[in-house]
Design a protein that fits this description.
mainly beta, elongated
Length: 377
């Protein structure tokens, strides 16, 4: 899925999959989506209709193929039968939720498609509303709809085809969706606001094998995102730069690092230094008044003996650190995490699975270039 294009089920809306969640309890994809805005605002809005937005969408709401083509529905949607008691429930749509795992099956389970999954020995239930017919979707009583109840996918209806039950939204680019996936309210409100973020506590992965979506290289502020997951080591993209490397999972942490005051004026201490023994050379720099300049190698060794590998944020702020640079990119690293030689057992990662890495990078570059290019509709 990651690194591909998909469609939101029941619509003709295409999204780019930039990242997937490897957390079993959060089965979402981070998708790039071209912004749709009302046509009447095009001349007066600073927003461009091809501006890219990032939203989280549950895997279950995605499809490999467009569901609406030539104003026809391309998949089977067996809508729920009309029931006055159910209709009354939908008037109180704020009580409905969907798209996340629950410990127990929710009330009114007849409304939901329920996917039960065993995760780490415990059973969880994901709820997604069954396909709705026009009355339950709100046709005739509402003019704005949310696709699958996702806040960022809320549009005003332009027209409705009573034969195909397909809604055309008042947006540019033109977007269409079948009533079966429309909601009158934000039933997936939990995906809203900072939806590009993932729920992770400040947990170190030093002795853990669980995968993660993003984190930091331990002892540094190098932020990485998972591109290809593997139980022992994964391919990570560094920050917003086009730097990709295979790194052992034990060297990645979800605990955001903390550093003290940073001085701008620095001089080189070590032309080559390695973070946690990883075989990627950095240049290390330090302020002129930094105590490391007296005896650099001795100072480096003393830090390893003085401070533990893992510590609280308050303790981290008190520890000495250096500025490290690579390819004109600047980061910070604690001195205790630096070494003058790479670890012998880590040198393999320079040539690790090169074909798979290059294939991913090539695909990533193509997707990035395509997102920047306006498509002819």
């Amino acid at each position: 899925m990651q690194g591909s294009y998909m469609f939101i089920k029941g619509t003709d809306i295409e999204v780019g999959i930039t990242r997937v969640s490897y957390d079993a309890l959060h089965p979402y994809a981070l998708c790039t989506l071209r912004l749709g805005i009302k046509k009447k605002y095009l001349k007066h809005s600073s927003l461009k209709p091809f501006s890219v937005r990032y939203i989280k969408i549950p895997f279950i709401c995605l499809s490999k193929h467009s569901s609406v083509k030539y104003n026809r529905l391309m998949y089977d949607a067996h809508t729920m039968p009309l029931d006055h008691t159910v209709k009354h429930l939908f008037k109180k749509h704020t009580t409905l939720t969907e798209g996340k795992y629950e410990d127990n099956i929710l009330p009114h389970s007849e409304l939901y498609e329920i996917i039960s999954t065993n995760i780490q020995g415990k059973t969880y239930h994901m709820h997604v509303l069954k396909p709705l017919h026009p009355t339950l979707a709100g046709i005739g009583t509402s003019h704005s709809f949310s696709v699958f109840g996702i806040p960022e996918l809320t549009y005003r209806m332009k027209k409705y085809d009573t034969t195909t039950h397909i809604v055309t939204f008042d947006t540019y680019p033109v977007r269409r969706a079948h009533v079966s996936v429309l909601r009158q309210g934000h039933t997936m409100k939990h995906l809203g606001r900072h939806s590009y973020r993932w729920n992770h506590g400040p947990v170190s992965l030093k002795n853990a094998t669980a995968p993660l979506d993003w984190g930091w290289i331990a002892g540094t502020n190098i932020h990485v995102k998972t591109c290809i997951h593997h139980a022992q080591n994964s391919l990570y993209k560094w920050d917003k730069h086009n730097i990709f490397h295979w790194i052992p999972i034990e060297q990645i942490t979800t605990q955001q690092p903390a550093f003290g005051h940073i001085e701008q004026s620095t001089i080189t201490v070590f032309p080559k230094v390695y973070v946690n023994g990883l075989p990627f050379p950095f240049e290390a720099r330090a302020p002129i008044k930094h105590p490391i300049h007296a005896h650099p190698v001795k100072f480096l060794q003393e830090q390893k003996d003085t401070y533990p590998l893992e510590s609280s944020r308050q303790q981290q702020q008190e520890q000495p650190f250096l500025i490290i640079t690579m390819q004109n990119n600047i980061w910070l690293a604690h001195v205790k995490n630096l070494s003058l030689e790479p670890r012998a057992d880590y040198t393999q990662y320079l040539q690790h699975r090169q074909q798979e890495k290059q294939a991913y990078i090539s695909d990533y570059m193509d997707r990035t270039a395509d997102l920047k290019r306006a498509k002819v509709l």
